[in-house]
Write a structure and sequence with these properties.
Layout lengths: L1 H12 L10 H6 L10 E13 L27 E16 L3 E11 L14 E9 L6 E8 L4 H4 L12 H7 L38 E13 L2 E10 L14 E13 L6 E16 L5 E16 L2 E11 L2 E5 L18 E4 L3 E14 L2 E12 L8 E15 L2 E13 L8 H6 L5 E9 L1
Antiparallel strand pairs: 1-2, 1-18, 2-3, 3-4, 4-5, 5-6, 6-7, 7-8, 8-9, 9-10, 10-11, 11-14, 12-13, 14-15, 15-16, 16-17, 17-18
Length: 446
C-alpha cells in the first residue's frame, strides 16, 4: 500500500514543478534557478532569559532536591539565567555557473543547547545537504537535514512563534539518544525500591536529534490553481546528527501537505495548510534493556495565517522508544538522599503516547502579536501506574522591531499528573513540584 501511495504522489507531482518559497520543503531544500546566489551567508542569534521559581521535589527518593524540569536547560545548574540559546551561521546557494539545478545548504550551531552541550562540543554542524533538481517531480536531497515530520520541528526555528516547544514535540519528537532504557539488572529504575544500580546512570549519548537525520529524500512541490501540494519520502539512518548509523536499521519518513494559498510570500506567506506525516524505524540499546525496539510516530494537523489572524493545531501519536523523564523527577546523575543510587534517564521501549496542541495568534498592531497555546501529552498510556499526563498553557507576545528582529515573551502555566495514583501519593506529589516558567528571547537574523 505504501508503494502505491508513493507512486501516486510521484505521478501527481509531475503535473507541475513550479515551487513557492513559503513551503518548508522548498524553503530549506531548494533555490530559485537563475536567481539564487552562488554563496549566500546567513544566520541568526537568540539570546534568552529564563526564570523558574525552583520548587524542590516534594516526595520520592530525591525529596528536597532540585526538580529537573525546574532547572534552566541544558546545564541544569540554575533556576534563573541568561544564555545564548542559539547562534547559527550558514551558507547556501547553487552550483551556478556550472549548474543551477544543483543547490546546497550548510548550517552550524554555536549556541548553548541540546545540540552542543550533551556532545561536549563548542560547535556542531546541524545541516549539510545537496539538492538535485534535474528530474521533474522528483527532487533529490541527500545529506543531513530536517526530517519531514511534525510542524514545530520542520519549520524554521527563527520564525517559530514561541520560545519552547510543546510537551508533545519536546518529549515525543525531539529525540534523546541513550545507551540503555534506564533500568538495572533487576528491571527497576535506578533509585526505585529494590534497585541495585549505584553508578553509571543512563545518560544522553551525544546531541539531541534536533528533528534531523542523515539520509536521502525525494520530494517536490506543485501548484494546481490556488492550491499548493507537497510530498516527501525520506530514507535515513535514524541515529541523530553528527554521526553515522549505529545498526543496520533504517528510518522511513512520509509526508504530504496541501495548502490553499491566500497571498504573500516568504516564510510568513498567508494560507491554510493541511498536512499528515509518518516516521518509523528501530532503535538499538546496548546496555540495560538491550535490544532493538520499534519506534513509530504519526501526525496530522493544519496551520492558518490570514491577515492579522494565525492558528495551528496538530495531533500526534507515538509507539515505542518514548522519553520517560528521570528517576523521581531529579536531575540525571544526582545521588539520592538515602543511598548511592543516582537518578537516571528512562525510556519506555514498548509503551505508547499521544497528544495535541492548539495555537492561536492575533496581531493587534502590525508590530505586536499576542499568542495563546494549549498543549496536552498523555505519556505511557499502556501502563496504569506508569502513565503521566502533561498540559501547558502558554501566554505570549511577540514584538517585531522589523522583519529580521523581534522580542518574544512567554509565560508557561505547567501542570503534570499521575492518573494512576491519588493526589497524596508520591508520584503526584512529585508532579505537583513542577513550576511555571517565564522566558524572554531576542532574535536578530542576518
Amino acid at each position: 500500500m505504501n508503494i502505491k501511495k508513493i507512486t501516486l504522489l510521484l505521478g501527481l507531482s509531475i503535473l507541475t514543478t513550479q515551487t513557492y518559497a513559503a513551503n518548508w520543503l522548498a524553503l530549506q531544500g531548494t533555490e530559485n534557478p537563475g536567481s539564487a546566489a552562488r554563496a549566500k551567508v546567513w544566520g541568526f542569534i537568540q539570546p534568552e532569559y529564563t526564570n523558574i521559581s525552583g520548587t524542590k521535589l516534594k516526595a520520592g527518593p530525591f525529596v528536597g532536591q532540585d526538580m529537573s524540569p525546574n532547572m534552566a536547560k541544558p546545564d541544569n545548574k540554575s533556576h534563573e539565567t541568561f544564555s545564548i540559546r542559539r547562534a547559527r551561521i550558514g551558507v547556501r546557494g547553487t552550483g551556478f555557473p556550472l549548474d543551477d539545478n544543483v543547490n546546497y545548504f550548510f548550517l552550524a550551531e554555536f549556541g548553548n543547547n541540546g545540540i552542543t552541550a550533551p556532545a561536549k562540543v563548542g560547535v556542531q554542524v546541524t545541516d549539510a545537504s545537496l539538492t538535485l533538481n534535474h528530474i521533474p517531480g522528483a527532487r533529490i536531497r541527500i545529506g543531513q537535514f530536517k526530517t519531514p515530520t511534525a510542524e514545530e520541528g520542520l519549520q524554521a526555528i527563527h520564525v517559530f512563534n514561541y520560545i519552547n516547544f510543546t510537551n508533545i514535540t519536546n518529549q515525543m519528537m525531539l529525540e534523546r539518544f541513550t545507551n540503555g532504557d534506564g533500568s538495572d539488572g533487576n528491571g527497576k529504575p535506578a533509585g526505585a525500591p529494590g534497585s541495585q544500580v549505584t553508578t553509571n546512570a543512563n545518560g544522553l549519548n551525544g546531541s539531541v536529534g534536533a528533528f534531523r537525520d542523515v539520509g536521502i529524500q525525494v520530494f517536490d512541490i506543485f501548484r494546481v490553481g490556488e492550491w499548493e501540494h507537497s510530498y516527501a519520502v525520506m530514507y535515513g539512518n535514524g541515529n541523530g546528527i553528527g554521526r553515522a548509523d549505529n545498526d543496520d536499521n533504517k528510518e522511513t519518513y512520509l509526508y504530504w501537505s496541501s495548502e490553499l494559498v491566500f497571498g504573500g510570500k516568504g516564510a510568513r506567506r498567508q494560507g491554510l495548510k493541511m498536512f499528515a506525516w509518518n516516521q518509523s524505524g528501530k532503535r538499538t540499546l546496548t546496555t540495560s534493556g538491550a535490544g532493538a525496539y520499534d519506534r513509530t510516530r504519526n501526525g496530522v494537523g493544519l496551520t492558518l495565517l490570514k491577515n492579522q489572524y494565525r492558528a495551528a493545531v496538530e495531533y500526534m501519536t507515538a509507539d515505542g522508544m518514548i522519553f520517560n523523564g528521570s528517576d523521581g523527577g531529579a536531575i540525571p546523575g544526582r545521588s539520592n538522599n538515602t543511598s548511592n543510587n543516582i537518578s537516571t534517564i528512562n525510556v519506555l521501549t514498548q509503551d505508547k503516547a499521544d497528544g495535541y496542541y492548539i495555537d492561536l495568534g492575533y496581531k493587534i498592531i502590525p508590530s505586536l502579536e499576542l499568542d495563546l497555546r494549549y498543549d496536552v501529552l498523555n505519556r505511557g498510556t499502556e501502563t496504569v501506574n506508569g502513565e503521566r499526563t502533561f498540559d501547558t498553557v502558554t501566554v505570549g507576545a511577540q514584538y517585531f522591531f522589523n522583519k529580521k528582529s523581534r522580542m518574544t515573551v512567554n509565560y508557561e502555566i505547567r501542570n503534570q499528573n499521575a492518573p494512576g495514583y491519588t493526589s497524596a501519593q508520591p508520584p503526584n506529589l512529585i508532579a505537583s513540584s513542577l513550576d511555571d516558567r517565564l522566558s524572554l528571547q531576542w532574535l536578530v537574523i542576518f
